Amino acid sequence: MTPDDVRARLAALQADDLPVHGGRTLAYVYDAGLAEVDALARDAVAAFAGSNGLDPTAFPSLLAMENDLVAFARGLVDGPDTMVGTLTSGGTESCLLAVQGARDARPEVAAPSMVVPETVHAAFHKAAHYFGVRAVVVPVGPDHRADAAAMAAAIDESTVLVVASAPSYAHGVVDPITEIAAAAAARGVRCHVDACIGGWVLPWAARLGRPVPAWTFAVEGVTSISTDLHKYAYAPKGASLLLHRTPQLRRPQYFAHAGWPGYTMLNATLQSTRSGGPVAGAWATVQAIGDDGYLDLTRRALEATDRICAGIRDLDGLALVAVPDSTLVAAVADGPLDVFTVCDEMAQRGWFVQPQLSYDARPPSLHLAVSAATDPAGFLAALQESVAAAVAAGPVPVDAGVVELLQTLDPATLGDAEFDLLLAAGGLAGDDGGLGLPERMAPVNALLDAAPPRLREAVLVAFLDRLARPSPASSAASIAGDA
Predict the structure, then answer these.
(1) Last-in-domain residue among 241, 264, 288
(2) pTM of the model
(3) Does the pLDDT of residue 373 top 50, yes or no?
(4) What are all long-range contacts of 204-208, with beta carbons under 8 Å and residues at least 24 apart?
(5) What is the dihedral sign for C-alpha 319, 117, 249, 102?
(6) Same domain for 265 and 138
(7) Higher pLDDT residue, 469 or 220?
(8) How far is CA 450 from CA 190, 354, 447, in A?
(9) Would residue 337 count as lying in a domain?
(10) Is 221 contained in some domain?
(11) Which of 70, 82, 124, 431 is at a distance of 20 to 30 A from 89, taking alpha carbons?
């Protein structure tokens, strides 16, 4: 393929993606609405894409930029002079390293565990799976915040970490971190605050005079904090910071190995080779926006959040799950309304809102991550139309026979044959036997919502596995430029 062919093919492939600018994609991406900063960040990513963060002595520029970012963050999280940090690929890696470091700091604990609220991000369950740290899940209170007393009671001799959220992703509220951290400290246990999505909003929210629950290193007992740069710092993907109160707390995170004939491996993160692109992109973004810029962006995002929340309160058919502490909004049906259909209707109007399936006794909800570039008036106009359309359409039916089938399937043994049955039942079977994604996802989400959580996991794993099977014919055609 010629360079022009490649560019044309890239543009064609990107045509079906969600837009990353314009503030209408309310999950996955975060838009400051600053075109010049975005262009600068892309230039920085390109300039350092070939640099390798594996060896800071070989590429000292990356280490300098990383230290600058950590120093900037120190002022946001009330970090002491001893605070250190590490740039990771994203919030999940930051959370994984927080768990790994806590585990390895306590080698005498044969079967380590961590105490987490049920609203903790799924990244911590991934860490539990990867690192053999049992997750002790504690129910939250009726306000969707962690139950500090129950968390304290769950700490035992096997506990190596306690986790709280600022805010929780699903509901957008900050846990009672002061009480949770105090309980952890009283037992000599680390306390991590997952501020991946709030860490670059809450500091400026406080400066704007908004009530913000305590969550930083100013809280005694907080030992580490994660905060993502590629969320509300508006940096390119993927960049996050894992911050520790002292170097001693970070030390177990490092991995070194000299017992082989090659170079001595020394890693601060799960990755060895790390592209310098995200480092430079994050550094350029933070330097260009600066403190005053982030204050303004936070004001805009929070004002948009306030207007959207007020609009939802005034709208028949939806109700807020909780008053958000930051920029995350969750809403549930208040009456005969299918929220999955609302999501589809919003997509038809050019807005992506994220569906959240039911959990325990909680009904399904729609979820928004509001950015500085989000237009609340345009959003609410589309939402009002979408709710009216969903009410007119009525509930999404799920065949009783399919529900019965879901109850008989074993997640541990779900294979291609069973998955093909579900594809057919959900209208996802293509004419060629492959996947045929529908334009409307409400029937698929309703089907998943009827399945137990473990089966949902198995079905989605099978779904991803089926998606990630390249066709030899299409691959050859793509290489030839004919796809």
Answers:
(1) 288
(2) 0.92
(3) yes
(4) 204/294, 204/295, 204/297, 204/298, 204/299, 205/298, 205/302, 205/326, 207/295, 208/295, 208/298, 208/299, 208/302
(5) negative
(6) yes
(7) 220
(8) 38, 18, 5
(9) yes
(10) yes
(11) 82
